[in-house]
């Protein structure tokens, strides 16, 4: 079958049974074929158009709602169904939490074949809208065209967009009018920036041909009300500074205004110079009397309130008495390290990004913490037997790796160092299950606690406590 050939199959009257992986829901045909469906709710009866056929399952989209589930909610966002985020708006929050708990269980037990004492109820987010402290928006001179629009009737100006990438299309950007992820002034800043750029004929970026001035922008906020804006341009231009002045005048609540000249073929600014134009060089988040510096490149959990709950779980699982040497692997800006430092004798933090380690050191000094040391470098190269011999064997290890999980060499080093307790914080229960299976040679899982950092999405953070057997 040709890759682009339309699959002309419509399945009528399917009953949606449950929530499945990757935010989809699951149904079965009369002959038992599994069908995964986007934007469906358990209890829906739907006609489904099949869009992909695999040997063991099909994927489809709702063509007609025959009868909605009694649990189905009206989406609150005008961009629902097109924007790639917040796919679970139609699913009640209690069902979202149940699905995330089941996801953790499935990854650890059904797929990972690990023995666990059970999965505790997910710690839900008090705010299920406007909970993010960081968003990135992209400019495009050829925005995503809605099905209701006639592309031939749109002017070049009407084709301009500023918003989020659509699904898996790197060059398609959905123009966002109102986003429910980040509190104001986020929406107001984005709309002002787009309007200014249009009125002053500043070229929007062409993501396929890589030309144009206006590339992307980041907005970061804190619970205390600080706002950082990072404007990214594809080239140097005299038009940049009048725009920055106009933004600063319109939004005096912006406490840090940066700009970046990024001529690379990708949007990452991790290797770019961030130039402070106005205001403070950083914003600060507060947690239990501690202050954490957030620069333009700093990593910080994007749900500040839930970060506190997540770190509280990690500290509880660490069961510190005050005499332990703790290693905090993938420490970022040292948030977990400093959060547990009051109950430890010494904390060693290791992180790949040098700028994050500099932030961690600044944070520790400003917080009056003297029992934390921080080291930058690739984890598998820094965390060696010689490093551990030189800095002291860990009593407790807290690990919070990226989605891919830990390198096998790191796992082996942890096994050789044999800390009494490991606290594994993960944004990906699948890679966490894989790593815990490797650690099961010497460790058993004693507690499992999911924390919901991202309401209305399938993503879940999970914390496992592992004890030396």
Structural summary, described in words:
- The chain is α/β, with parallel strands linked by helices.
- The chain is built from ten helices and 22 strands.
- The strands form four sheets. A seven-stranded mixed sheet has the order 9-8-7-10-11-12-13.
- A hairpin with a 2-residue loop joins strand 14 and strand 15.
- The N and C termini lie far apart (53 Å).
What is shown here, in short?
23% of the residues lie in helices and 28% in strands.
Walk across the major sheet and give the strand order: 9-8-7-10-11-12-13
**How far apart are the first and last residues' alpha carbons, in Å?**
53 Å
* Estimated structural class: alpha/beta
Which radius of gyration do the C-alpha atoms yield? 24 Å
**Number of contiguous helices:** 10
Helix content: 10-25%
Q: If you average the pLDDT, what whole number results?
A: 95
Global shape: globular
Largest sheet: number of strands, sense, barrel closure = 7 strands, mixed
Percent of sequence in beta strands: 25-35%
List segments where confidence is low: pLDDT < 50 over at least 5 consecutive residues.
none
- What's the total number of strands? 22
Q: What is the topological layout?
A:
Elements: E1 10-15, E2 18-19, E3 25-28, E4 34-37, E5 45-53, E6 57-67, H1 93-111, E7 134-140, E8 161-165, E9 173-175, H2 186-199, E10 214-221, E11 227-233, H3 240-250, E12 256-261, E13 275-279, E14 283-287, E15 290-294, H4 304-318, E16 325-329, H5 335-340, E17 346-351, H6 354-366, E18 372-376, H7 379-382, H8 385-391, E19 396-399, H9 408-417, E20 421-426, H10 429-439, E21 443-451, E22 461-468
Parallel strand pairs: 4-6, 11-12, 16-17, 16-19, 17-18, 19-20
Antiparallel strand pairs: 1-5, 2-3, 3-4, 5-6, 7-8, 7-10, 8-9, 10-11, 12-13, 14-15, 20-22, 21-22
Helix pairs in contact: 1-10
